[in-house]
Design brief:
- The protein is an alpha/beta fold.
- The chain has a single domain (46-278), classed as TIM Barrel.
- The protein has 13 helices and eight strands.
- The chain has helices spanning 2-11, 14-21, 28-33, 39-51, 68-87, 107-123, 138-151, 166-173, 198-214, 226-239, 256-264, 280-288, 294-306, and strands spanning 55-60, 92-96, 128-130, 155-160, 179-183, 218-222, 246-251, 269-275.
- An eight-stranded parallel β-barrel has the order 1-2-3-4-5-6-7-8, surrounded by six helices.
- The longest helix has 20 residues, at 68-87.
- The model is unreliable at 296-305 (pLDDT under 50).
Length: 309
């Protein structure tokens, strides 16, 4: 746990992650989790995933812009992603982070940009998915999602099983009948607002999954946990959920064996495909979730930052 927390702490230190990122995606291990630094590289990987009968959601890495000009540039980038998916006839959508769209600047400004992206997607017959970030942004994210969904129901939302509040948030969202991506949560949150033990997070994930399966939601089951996948498949079987009402979601490069298994079983599967130059914080968060990789990170990534000029 100490090593995992240290890696997560490193992922929040911009000077360190920038120093690592300057080396580029030269490590084969990093390439496993990141589709590339450019949209063209991500499109190439997305096309390959489509050939493997998996849809995708493109995620341009980065967060917390500080100026309106930066946020508008990100918005234009998201629209370019949609247009490229359309032009290349790739089966997929995009995920957006509201802190990339100026949420720290103004909620109204962020909502305006998000509505522009969603309207573009809807005009193409495509969707977007709004990521859930750290708990400081949960309420604002919900409010923006509700406003955007009211104008364009092509937007979906991620919710986090480790937050105590999420069950009530689902009650709040149920009248919208939205698409919900259920994740465990990847940020470090205090005990006053989030479950700390994995067993408690898992129990709440199952509870929320049951609620979503029984409610008026389109469901994206986002997990790499074999026991959770088995629980989800049994829940789907019991409720007779058709393939248009759910999908599994997994992250690019993680548990490729399970990805193949789900595909072979005929389940709809969407792969979260991250790309961009700001890949290092994301990469380190992913590795901090996997204890077997912690020593690898310390030995290779931190050394890359401090050991080379």
């Amino acid at each position: 746990m100490l090593i995992r927390n240290f890696i997560f702490w490193l992922s929040t230190k911009k000077k360190i992650t920038d120093a690592i990122a300057r080396q580029g995606l030269r490590h084969g291990f990093a390439r496993r989790f990141i589709a590339g630094e450019t949209l063209a590289e991500a499109i190439t990987q997305s096309r390959e995933l489509n050939r493997e009968r998996r849809s995708i959601t493109l995620n341009h890495l980065g967060e917390n812009v500080t100026t309106e000009a930066e946020a508008r540039g990100v918005k234009d980038g998201y629209i370019e992603m949609l247009r490229e998916l359309e032009q290349q006839k790739i089966e997929g959508n995009i995920s957006v982070k509201l802190t990339q769209l100026g949420l720290d600047i103004s909620r109204d400004f962020c909502q305006q940009l998000t509505e522009e992206i969603t309207a573009t997607a809807q005009g193409m017959g495509r969707t977007i998915e709004i990521d859930m970030e750290a708990s400081a942004y949960t309420e604002a994210t919900l409010a923006i999602f509700e406003a955007v969904h009211g104008k364009s129901p092509s937007a979906g939302l991620a919710v986090q099983a480790y937050l105590y509040r999420t069950e009530k948030d689902l009650d709040r969202l149920a009248p919208l009948e939205p698409k919900i991506r259920l994740v465990k949560g990847a940020y470090r949150e205090p005990a006053k607002i989030a479950f700390q033990k994995k067993s408690d997070v898992d129990a709440n994930y199952r509870k929320l999954l049951d609620k979503l399966l029984s409610g008026p939601f389109q469901l994206a089951i986002a997990t790499h946990d074999e026991k959770m996948l088995a629980y989800a498949r049994e829940g789907l079987r019991k409720r007779g959920r058709g393939k248009n009402g759910y999908e599994f979601q997994m992250i690019y490069g993680i548990r490729r064996d399970l990805q193949q298994q789900l595909t072979e079983e005929g389940h709809p599967l969407r792969i979260y495909v991250p790309y961009g130059t700001e890949w290092c914080p994301y990469f380190m968060r992913r590795l901090s979730e996997r204890p077997a990789n912690c020593w690898f990170v310390l030995r290779n990534l931190v050394a890359e930052s401090f050991g080379r000029k």
